[in-house]
Amino acid sequence: xxxxxxxxxxNILTGVSFLVHTxxxxxxxxxxxxxxxKDNKEAFNLKREKWTQTRCGWHWxxxxxxxxxxxxxxxxxxxxxEGHENFLKKLMSxxxxxxxxxxxxxxxxxxxxxxxxxxxxxxxxxxxxGGLINNSIDN
Length: 139
Known about the structure:
Blueprint: H1 5-31, H2 41-77, H3 85-109, H4 116-119, H5 122-135
Helix pairs in contact: 1-2, 1-5, 3-5
C-alpha cells in the first residue's frame, strides 16, 4: 500500500535511474578508461588518476540514487516519519531540483558540442522527479 501516486512515480523513476546509472553508466565510463602509454607513464598515471576520480564520482551519484530510492519507499509505504513527511519531501524535492539546476548550469558553462542539452538531458529527469515529490506534499 502506498500513500501517493506522485511519490510512487518518483520512487520508480529514481529506482530505475539507480539501476541504469550504476550498471549501464559504468560501462560508458569504462569506455573512456585511459590505456597504458608505455612512452609516457607519468601522463598515463595522471589520466588514470583523473579517470578513477571520475568513476568514484559516478558511483557517488549511484549511491545517492539508491539512498533516495530507499528514502522515497520508506516515506511512501511506511509511517516511520509520521509528522515529518512534508519536511522530508520538501528536502528531497529541493535536492532533486538543485541537482537539475547544477546539471543544466554545468552543460551551459562547458565547451559546446552539437545537441548538448538534448544529449545530456538528465536535468529534465531530475526536475521531473523533484516535481513529482513536490506534488506529493500535503498542503
